[in-house]
Amino acid sequence: MRFQLIRHGQTPSNVAGQLDTAYPGASLTPLGHRQARALPQAFSGGQLQSIYASTLNRTQLTAQPLSESTGQKLQVIDGLEEISAGTLEMQADEASRYAYGMCLHSWMHGDWEQKMPGGPNGYDFIERYSKALETIARAQDYSGTVAVFSHGAAIRVFSAWATKMAPADAAELHIENTGGSLLELGIGGTWALEWWNPEPLGGDFVRDVLTEDVTGGEDGIP
What we know:
- By secondary structure, the chain is α/β, with parallel strands linked by helices.
- 34% of the residues lie in helices and 15% in strands.
- Helix 2 runs parallel beside helix 3 (57-70) and helix 5 crosses helix 6.
């Protein structure tokens, strides 16, 4: 079965460069709402089996237009949330942004014991995100595609870990608002990356190329 992991639409915190990871989180900007409304055209083939979102406001708002257009009920599940910024929460200064990005960088280079300042280590994150996707998988018939609305850093790190991506390749991953990755879960529990789409699934007309974006990967980490 396939998991289409989709990052939420743009938020005011994205624009401000803030590390906004806690519940309930920000809403969407006008551009974020346009990005959400553009998503149904990317799924016009009717291949969706179900739609899930994290417990944070921005993912549910992003998923809503797709749910309405397909008639698939939006299901909210715990565990798909963004990687916690810990004591860096809502900070926008360069040092905090660098510290957050550097922690993600360390994880994707294999140092999963590295802790986010005041937050989780890499193993903590992988455990809770994997459990959420396993819960979703058990509710499916393995023949379709599941749309999962989640968060930039979470999608980047999990996709790299699940597909055993080389550290150099993993560190280069970035994802704009409503970009995503398509992962296939095999019967034996192995994951494969079918494709990575860093740009908005709705098309170029809903891109924002000017905003600096830590959780999406524009973090300046080598």
